[in-house]
Amino acid sequence: MTPGLPLQLLLVCDPASDELALEQPLKQHGLDFSVERADTLDRLDALLHSECSALLYHYASRTLPLDEVLARLRKIDPELPIILVAAEVSENMVIDLVQQGLSDFVLEDKLARLPGVLERVLAEAARQRESRERHDQLRKFALAVEQSPASIIITDTTPVIEYVNEAFCRNSGYAREEVLGRNPNLLNLGLTPRKTYTELWETLGRGEVWQGELHNTRKDGTDYIEAATIAPVREPDGRISHYVAIKSDITDERRSESLIHRLSHFDSLTGLANRSQMLKRLEQSAAAMQRTGRHGMLIVLDIDGFKFINDLHGYQAGDALLLSVTQRLRDTLTDESMIARIGGNRFAVVVENLSRRRDRAVTQAHDLAELIHAELQDPHFLEQDGVSIRHATTMGLCLLSTEPEAADRLLNKAEIALQRARDESGNNWRFFKPDMQTVVEERAEVESGLHEALEKGRLRLFYQSLYDAEGRLTGVEALIRWFRPDGQMVPPDRFIPLAEETGLILPIGAWVVETACAKLREWSQNPETAELFLSINISARQFHQPRFVESLLKVMDDYDIEPGRLVLELTESVVLNDMGHTEQRMLAIRDLGIGLALDDFGTGFSSLSYLKSLPFDTLKIDRSFVSDMLGSESSAAIVQATISMGHALGLKVTAEGVENKRELSLLRRFGCDSFQGFLFARPLPPEDWAPADQSLD
């Protein structure tokens, strides 16, 4: 029954019964009600499925026996109150009917009692319904608590444990009988800071809810971290009688956060700070120097010839050398200095608390640089490999003054000084000097402009045609160009190395792949260009990205590109980094049908072994060898041998930088497969490039 709404009464009686006699006392009592009459079983069933407050049964009914009505009621609506109206009722009859579900009865000569009986029966039904609902809620709550994945503990205010759920037992390793009656501090072996417990009890003492983390210990001695919410339980009079704690094991989450923090701030091999962490420390150091007036120093150092060491002794030896260098730096420097690994073979050192006097600080920096350089000159004995390695070390130094300057600009200065030292033969060190500032500013200008060029679409792909020995157009190489707003072109050799170093090469490389695929889709609509391949240069950083192959496949699918028409050009610096990983990735690319070309062959540590093992399709001879052929017999011999070697390995050979017919004639005589250079075509913007064969006579 819904409060405020009229009672819906169901009257079961014979057609000849006096319905008004039953309704009259209810009306006199002021009850708001309506009556539906049932005098057949079908009518009864229909009404029992509708909204009813109570059922009145007139015992005189012959068509609807009471036992049948009670049976149907138990089946359809067992909670519906039923009142019997009869001329007389025996004690045994009442007992029997109550057992069948009768709520109460009224004698025909006492119908004035009917309103009161009806109100009492309805009130009792409401109480029972509320009790059942509360019981159901408590049962559901108990099941939820017991089956909750969170540990739940209830204690008195002593505190003594009175209840724990199954999750507590699983997480802690204790059985219920081992903890009931004990203090919850059996889990505390001193790992949680004392301050945490002080705050906990102060909060609970104020009658408030406490939330925090507890570092507990399981029964087997293993440690775990729990996020806990502990709340006081109050009696109706406001007195706190118990505490309930809900706790979740967050050990894995905290360990993951710690690992993520470590991976994002520290080098996984050496344990040193990484580049981003070093820049933060450098920024803090610069701010401290402004407060104290002291100077500091930033050192950037390279292990010279590290790539050659890896090639000669293997990557395990290279890692061991990095660890040895790390240890020597730690042994040489004080704990106040910060050491970081900011690149493959590049380290940085932040030194603080040099003298307030500039001349004295320069002397201190000079002496420390000499000491570090000397310590790194001694051979490193790699015990696990049984080899002794001596390497050169080149360093760039930047004095940190009290003048405010951004951390990345300070790093740029040290790296410029490092480059100057390398240009002067290497294995030495140089201070950054004011006359190098122009270089730093130009570098910063190029980096800023490159960001803007990428954002505002100022990068373009130019296209240079490739021809076979008969002068037929076979393919095109896409070459990136950057034009400033005034139309001036920035040479690729000026911005590509910087893009590699700053990481901008990744969005640039992704743009190149997408632009090339869009061009291939355009060409597929023209019979003159539908069969051409388009080659693009892929940087080492881009190639070794974890999802590089998947990103290639997605772009080709987006533009519906035939894989065989796309060729990736890789330099030796790309493929020599982790040969096992490189081979697997190249095979995955080849499985997609994409072509692979080795670019600038001969300019690096060319090795027949990797050329044999890696799945290249094409070998491209660097322009420097081509341009020297006519004036140098040794260069001509190298070119001829390279072509023969490539053919022996089943590779096509392309000559780059062909600029005159004498070079072309010699290359054709050597059996070169295809040619690229100014003799045929310069790189052209897409609006000027057109497919055309060449006459080679």
Give the structure's gist in a few sentences.
This protein is an alpha/beta fold and 697 residues long. It is built from 25 helices and 26 strands.
Q: Could you explain the architecture of this structure?
A:
The protein starts with 6 loop residues before the first strand and ends in a 22-residue tail after the last strand. The radius of gyration is 44 Å and the shape is elongated. It is α/β, with parallel strands linked by helices and 697 residues long. Strand 18 (459-468) and strand 19 (473-483) form a beta hairpin. The chain has 4 domains: 7-143, Rossmann fold; 148-254, Beta-Lactamase (2-Layer Sandwich); 281-432, Alpha-Beta Plaits (2-Layer Sandwich); 451-675, TIM Barrel. An 8-stranded mixed β-barrel has the order 18-19-21-22-23-24-25-26, surrounded by 4 helices. Strands 2-1-3-4-5 form a 5-stranded parallel β-sheet, with helices on both faces. Helix 2 runs parallel beside helix 3 (66-76), helix 11 crosses helix 12 and helix 12 (315-332) packs antiparallel against helix 13 (358-377). The mean pLDDT is 85. The chain is built from 25 helices and 26 strands.
CATH class of the largest domain, please? Alpha Beta
Rg to the nearest angstrom? Answer: 44 Å
- The stretches of 5 or more residues where confidence is low (pLDDT under 50) are none
Summarize model confidence as the mean pLDDT. Answer: 85
